[in-house]
Amino acid sequence: MEADLAAQRLLMPAPRSRVSPPPWLSFHLHGRRIFFNPVSLAVGETEAEISAAASTSVPEFPLTPPGPPAHLVLNVTHACNLACRYCFAAKYWEAATMTPAVAERAVALLADGPRERAITLSFFGGEPLLAWETLMAGVAAAERLGQSQGRRVHLHITTNGALLDADKAEYLAQHGFSVLISLDGPEDIHNAARPMRNGGNSWRATMAALAHLRASGSRPAGRRARVTLRGTYLPGRAGEAADHGAAWERANLRERCEFYGRLMDSGYCAGFSLEAATLTEGGAGRTTLRVDEEGLRREYHEVALWYLDRLRRGRPPGFFHFNKILERLRRRRPQVTECGAGRSYLTIGPDGSIFACHRETGTRIGHLDTGFDAVARARWLDNRLTQRDACRDCWCRYVCGGGCRQRAAELGRPLSEPDPDACAVMRIMVAECLWLLLHLPPRPAGGKCAQLPVSPSSYRFLPFPGCKRKP
Ligand code: SF4
Ligand code: SF4
User: Fold this and answer.
1) Is residue 340 pLDDT above 60, yes or no?
2) Is 249 strand, coil or helix?
3) Phi, psi of 266 (to 5 degrees)
4) Over the stretch 173-221, which tens digit does the pLDDT of each residue have?
5) Cβ atoms 350, 77 nearer than 8 A
6) Spatial contact of 21 and 15, defined as CB atoms under 8 Å apart
């Protein structure tokens, strides 16, 4: 293991020089030799394999003008009933709630979208269930618009679930919501980071919400909400975590995955994500945690072993980040951006401010009353990784896509500067996924490259051998 880590350390730093990267990389990880072409995204175990699939011509990604908004987020309130230790919205606790009238005006922004595209509306906060009337007004406006234009409506909500009773669960189900529930893992882990504002046990309240959502749509012909879980962990060393009010010594990633796996197997959710809090804490005015890279490498390898074990037992792993990275690698589809924030993806704050990103801080680009601030919006329009200095030569750039730009904005840095902590976590995950790829696909006769292009449909329904259920 130590030799593996040492070899990986040599690989990990993102070269910032202007020297062209070699056509492929080679390194040892967990006892396997891995060759990886960072441009063609080919992976193999020998130089012969990788050269057969080699392409070093850099893909071109022309910049397209932004179209009308396709995905709108309503930050319906900054208020919250929880006091999560790493919350980027913590400083908003005393702030306003959106009125139903503002929600309706915001939804009107989606009217210019192409008729063939669905209307996509998300509710975010703070805790959006605290603004239930506004949420229902937004849903009604979106559904009216969809009906008048003959467009499908996709609705999403991100919530801690603590206020979700049976009636609200039924409402979300009947309107076809996809529901992202913040749940950090088992009870002790979750409650250490996500106490109620009054100090109470939020885990039990969130688990009750999951039960309501699972029961929703149980009537004949009823719809059922699609539920995904979102966990957050502190990636720093124990001492630093203690400075932030946390009491754990490690991120416990595998323990969390096993917990989520049990919930998936019991029908509570379809999958989960698990993110480092380093991406969010700056907005709460806290100092940045330095990522404990060595500790996280060990922990993410434990996650990779868990992921592999799930697949071998015919269970979908459901881990969003590994699924996403593996999908990009298996399809060999280079990724040029992380998101369309400020382009076709917009957020409306409680007072009608327009933000590029739902995390708001540092991303204000206009107001519903006055329209876009062209200067403020301009810096969001080119979202390609080629605009970020450190990304141009990074070995995992076309898997990563260039990272989150809001993190730089909230720290008051140019959007061209990626967050080194987030980069460290991304590189660890990509390395583990490269290792996983050597174990997952069928090994074709003749030792061809491990990554063969697969059609989207076959990938979706049978992602890897041994997985009998749709992920
Ligand atoms: S944001 Fe992604 S592509 Fe850019 S340097 Fe970091 S890991 Fe590499
Ligand atoms: S800027 Fe970052 S947080 Fe905002 S949508 Fe993009 S990736 Fe997500």
Assistant:
1) yes
2) coil
3) -95, 5
4) 999 999 999 999 999 999 988 999 888 999 999 999 999 999 986 655 5
5) yes
6) yes
Q: Tokens 């209307």 appear where?
A: 119
Instruction: Report how far residue 92's alpha carbon sits from residue 4's, in angstroms, rounded to the nearest whole number.
Output: 44
Helix, strand, coil shares of the chain as percentages rounded to 5? 40, 15, 45
The CB-based long-range contact list for 302-306 (8 Å cut-off, 24+ gap) reads 302/253, 302/254, 303/253, 303/254, 303/257, 303/432, 304/432, 304/433, 304/435, 304/436, 305/254, 306/254, 306/257, 306/258, 306/261
Instruction: Give CA–CA dist 31/45, Å, rounded.
Output: 11
Which residues have CB under 8 Å from 78's CB, separation 6+? 89, 92, 93, 95, 96, 97, 125, 126, 350
Q: Choose one of 291, 328, 383, 388 to mutate for the ligand 1 pocket test, by most ligand atoms within 8 angstroms of C-beta.
A: 388
pLDDT band with cut points at 50, 70 and 90 for residue 404: very high
The closest of 105, 138, 69 to 370, measured between CA atoms, is 105
CA–CA distance, 135 with 100 (Å, rounded to integer) = 8
CB distance 346 to 328 below 8 Å: no
CATH number of 71-331: 3.20.20.70
**Per-residue pLDDT tens digits for 63-87:** 888 889 999 999 999 999 998 887 7
* DSSP single-letter state for residue 381: H
Residues 7, 8, 14, 18, CA torsion sign? positive
CA distance 304 to 326: 12
Nearest CA to ligand 1 atom 3: 397
Residues with CB under 6 A from ligand 2: 338-339, 341, 357, 359, 404-406
Return the H-helix or E-strand segment holding 12. Answer: none
- Identity of the residue numbered 157: I
- Please name the residue whose Cα sits nearest to atom 6 of ligand 2: 339
Cα–Cα distances (Å) from 381 to 61, 149, 177, 184, 378, in that order, read 14, 28, 29, 34, 5
Calculate Rg over the CA atoms of the chain.
22
At 35 the pLDDT is 87
